[in-house]
Amino acid sequence: MIAKNIIKQPKSIVEITITAPWTDLQATWDATLQKMAADIELPGFRKGAAPLAMAEQNLGIKLQDEVLKVAMPQFLIEALKGTDIVPIDYPKYDLTSFVKGTQLQYKATITNRPQISVGNYKAIKVVRPASKSVTDEEVNKAIDDLYKRWKTKQPASPSGGLGGPSVTQNQPGQTGSINFQPGQTQVTPTNGQADVPNDEFARAMGALSITDLKGKIRKDLESNVSYNNELDFEEAILQEVEKITTVELPEILITDELNRMLVSLQRRVADMGLLLEDYLKGQGKTLDQLKNEWRVQAEKNVRMELGLAEIARMENVAITDDELKAEIDKIQDAKVKAQFETQEPRLHLRHALRQTRTLDLLKKMVGG
Description:
It contains twelve helices and eight strands. It has helices at about 20-35, 50-60, 60-80, 135-150, 200-205, 210-245, 250-270, 275-285, 285-315, 320-330, 335-340, 345-365; strands spanning about 5-10, 15-20, 90-95, 105-110, 115-120, 175-180, 185-190, 245.
């Protein structure tokens, strides 16, 4: 049985010192060793066939690290049972002491769910944005832009035109014709025909004809409009949640949100082919200045997140183990999926699913 010492600090910070006897760790150690030994190939032995003692010696500190990745979150969950502490961020672990065969002692620092007050969320009034119809001009512009990009990728023919059928000059009064000469196919446009998207281009885009392609483009544009309308609707609801939420914001959550915003900026800057340092120089700002400018928005984002979580608690919104497993099973990438074998990513995913379900509930409440 583990021993624990819980100390609550200002701004919802909680430190839990946990001591676990070796008897509570041995099963995890042995199971982890078996799993890791199956991938080890030592001289004189087939892969996974080396004696466990040799595999254990070869693994060294890697084995201990893997054991702690599993054991520390499990013991923390056990230590929090029966308390009023609800972690709202990833724990930070500090190992005090551990050697195989002896007790494990470490400190976990978490941010407890602060006292949150949410106003009458059932009275939120938000109007769903009206769906904007897609015009013929928008469809034609999308077709023209696609056609221009397609043309630039076509190989040039010996005559300087696009690859494939080549264009020949007609005499006045002639109509379009195809000249089937050995080694060369020539297409001459009907007199006065403009260089515009046609059925050949449409088929290259996976459509049956230019009319079919226009229909597909229109459908895509309408789906995009509908998607953006839904995002705007959800954002408007979340903004109302933030307005009626009162909470003393833990500093660690503001810092985490600022870091998340920074990562998002780095990705956008990288897409432009720039380094963050070059971008900041161009803006004439330092990283600290940028974060200071973002702080008000970061606080709103955190308040919004906490308010939504409190509504989830009041409405008894929950994600079952089967629902969580079903979501993880959807992941195709084996490496990404393997990350959810440990407890912390599963907790994070469960929270994200719960927040999404709560937002869906609010959308129904406001009549969306």
